Amino acid sequence: MSRRNTREAILDTALALFNEHGIERVSTNLIALELDISPGNLYYHFRHKDDIVEALFARHEAAMCGLLAVRGAPGLGLEDTWFYLHHLFELIGMHRFLYRNFSDITSRSRKIGKRFKSLIELQAASIRSLTDSLRLAGILKANAAEQAALIRNVLLITTCWLSFAELLSPLAASGPALAVWQVLSLFVPLFREPERGQLEALALQYLNDA
């Protein structure tokens, strides 16, 4: 196995273990054991567990930035918005250990804390762009204060959904579809007809298929 492949394998294994057990319960020795390499080999690539966490955050950050770079455009449809949010929750789910423990992670690493905040701010800008597009299309009927509250509520759900869903275990098995509907349910009272009915029909279809 090449050095690059070993490094990526360490990150893949650590990600799976962190997602399943949490950071505190996973040691570098356990990661090495799971991967069937020596602790020294792992230490060559990552001197501390926090270095692994930072590298995994960088992975997530790159994927999220790629998605959040999307800006709303005239003619944006309900299904486009649904798929955007679905992809967002998929990316969050892939690195769910970051969101289950984000307060602990950001408190132990000031660097990650700043980058996490920047990521949330980028998400806010992206959601604002999407809601602006829906307003311009006449689909979303919201004044400036309502739009600002909507954006904050979307951020609250996307950031804290996993912890909430795992607290109520049946929700944890529902996948992104229910999380997406939880976000879009905030939009329903602000939608005009016929888009409100279309959104509810779309939600029913996706929830049944999930």
Can you describe this structure?
This protein is mostly helical. Helices cover 75% and strands 0% of the residues. Helix 10 (176-184) packs antiparallel against helix 11 (195-209). The radius of gyration is 19 Å and the shape is elongated.
The end-to-end span amounts to: 38 Å
Main sheet characteristics:
none
Strand percent estimate:
under 5%
Structural class: mainly alpha
Helicity range? over 70%
Order of helices and strands: HHHHHHHHHHH
What Rg, in angstroms, do the CA atoms define?
19 Å
Contiguous runs where pLDDT drops below 50 for at least 5 residues: none
Taking all residues together, what is the mean pLDDT?
Answer: 87
Number of strands: 0
Continuous helix count: 11
The coarse silhouette is elongated
Oligomer: single chain
Which helices and strands appear, and what pairs or packs with what?
Layout: H1 3-21, H2 28-35, H3 39-45, H4 49-68, H5 78-94, H6 96-100, H7 102-108, H8 110-136, H9 144-167, H10 176-184, H11 195-209
Helix pairs in contact: 1-2, 2-3, 4-5, 4-8, 5-10, 7-8, 8-9, 10-11
List keywords for this structure.
210 residues; mainly alpha; 11 helices; 75% helix
Brief description of this entry?
This protein has helices at residues 3-21, 28-35, 39-45, 49-68, 78-94, 96-100, 102-108, 110-136, 144-167, 176-184, 195-209. With 210 residues, it is an all-alpha fold. The two termini are 38 Å apart.
